[in-house]
Design a protein that fits this description.
The structure is a single chain. By secondary structure, the chain is mainly beta. It folds into two domains: 62 residues, SH3 type barrels, CATH 2.30.30.60; 40 residues, no CATH class. The chain contains one helix and six strands. The strands form two sheets. The chain has a four-stranded antiparallel sheet, covered by helices on one side. A two-stranded antiparallel sheet has the order 5-6.
């Protein structure tokens, strides 16, 4: 699937326009004016999954006249904060508009998580 600059696409958050592509980073603007930087590979996967079982409507010719309501899911994503270890849940914590991670009450999200370097095994 090819994503092109200037074209409109849709994900679970809504319709967005691709502003720029730099390597694996996709710079997008949603209909409400919110800007975001996301992974190009992840957006391709989301587009593929979002449209699975539907007619091919990944690319939108023009902006819809009214906002498209996305169906609400009853599934709750549960995890824990990388910084303080407290529980984070998709029905209680907000998502970061930059990285997409759930934001903990301590303020941590994926944006401020230290990058892992070297081996992932702490015993090596």
């Amino acid at each position: 699937m090819k994503i092109e600059i200037g074209e409109n696409y849709r994900n679970r958050k809504g319709t967005y326009k691709v502003l720029d592509i730099q390597g694996d980073r996709l710079f997008i603007e949603y209909e409400d004016g919110e800007w975001s930087e996301v992974s190009l590979r992840r957006q391709k996967l989301i587009l593929r999954n979002f449209n699975r079982g539907r007619k091919k409507t990944t690319q939108i010719a023009k902006k819809p006249d009214k906002k498209v309501e996305q169906p609400q899911s009853n599934l709750v994503y549960k995890s824990h904060c990388w910084r303080c270890g407290k529980r984070v849940m998709s029905n209680k914590n907000k998502r970061c508009s930059t990285c997409g991670w759930l934001k903990c009450k301590c303020g941590a999200c994926g944006c401020n998580r230290p990058k892992l370097t070297g081996s992932l095994d702490p015993f090596l």
